[in-house]
Amino acid sequence: MLNKIFSKQNRALTRELVITDFKLKYQGSFLGYLWSLLRPLLLFLILYIVFVKFLKIGNGVPHFPIYLLLGIILWNFFLDLTLQGLTSIVGRGDLIRKVKIPRWIIVFSSSISALITFLLNFTVVILFMVFSGVSITWNILWLPLYLLELYVFASGISLFLSATYVKFRDIGYIWEVLLQAGFYLTPILYPLSKISNISFQKLIMINPVAQVIQDMRYSLITKNSVTVEKVFNNGPYSLVPFLIVIIVFTFGALHFKKQSRYFAENI
After folding, report:
1. Which of 30, 52, 90, 149 has an alpha carbon within 20 to 30 A of 257's alpha carbon?
2. Is 205 inside a domain boundary?
3. What local confidence, expressed as pLDDT, does residue 2 receive?
4. How many CA atoms lie within 13 A of 204 on its CB side?
């Protein structure tokens, strides 16, 4: 099964689709690929001025600018992966009708494109850490696992959204609204410790995106970051975000597989 999934032909097709996605994404842009770095940095600059300099939200959090930047690029990774995945099948409608290829490769290639953009942005975070004197500890070894968790979660959502979007285009508008709400409900702009209601903290932290952001901040930047283990006192409920990831990916994959047979006729 794995040999079939990662066959030479599938790898070559994925590579070509990723390259094409990057070219189309920045086609006609003067700065081109630099926008993958500039976009989160410009957003960070605006939010830093408003929330740090004027509203003083980050007071008391060590290295809060980097703390904020890491949250922004992780959220952008989740946003880019799901939004690109949402339209990936419809966007490749001509290819699906003409060539018999595994449908999942189209969604997978869009996710790889988002992952590459994240890795470019993450190098900026590392550079900020070095210049700001943030100590890099062995906890950095946990980062690939947290990133994998976020990638699997977002991929499960992308599989569901891409299959649903083929027949129900309104799902795109619905997802954009949910992303807007999710941005403010996720502790990106504010430290979770600012929320005094413990029950609300727990509700926020069962969201895998919030859990990953907080755990990565704890491992990379400051031990002051509130993690899912701290919120649930290392109890069994601290496993809820991981269970949600498994459930979402499984459901998304099954839904995608069921609907994929109808893609060519419905696009």
Report:
1. 149
2. yes
3. 40
4. 26
